[in-house]
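WARN retry 2 of 3 for item q-0093 after timeout on previous attempt; input resubmitted unchanged.
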Amino acid sequence: MTLHVEAAGALVTVQDRGRTGFAHLGVPRAGALDAPAAELANRLVGNDPGAAVLEVVLGGLTLRADRGCWVAATGAPAPMRVADVPRGHARAEWVPAGARLSIGTPRTGLRTYLAVAGGVAVDPVLGSRSTDTLAWVGPEPVVAGEAHAALGRLHARHRLGHVVQQGRQHQTAPGRQLVGERRVEHLAHPARAAAEHRLGIVGQPQPMRPLRRK
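OK item q-0093 returned
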């Protein structure tokens, strides 16, 4: 089964659990920045939790599968459509053969993780399929016109289904890898990801109005 990428948005990379033990060579770990979300997406489609997924920054991904497959999107909640029909978040969804799948701009957060049953097939480098945009180790970022195959066997112990996430609260702080909810609202306007690494987002916020003291 092959996924044909028609649009890639700001930044789409292949990520798994990353590579360890090479820091002395100047090679960072890389891997999914939201590891629990990536592992959840894999479990939903029956993959090993460490299988490679697509990490989508600020949406904009459109792809087409040449065969029917199960997919799941987790992480930043973004509108997902299959054959122009809205689909759910954090649940397994079926993509018919030849249908287009698109992921829009997240309502909150930055990174949405898309898992496909079987995992994403790229050649591993130093034991990982992750794209490292600091040392540029691993596969190049995903761009339009590329094709990626699925590989591997489904794990019978993982059941297809959906996960209801209720009552969870996450405390975030500006800077580093987390962005507060109010800051993310500015990124709903046209924005681009920093080309040199995954840790920075160059946005185009709206002009700010001065606050009036009462």
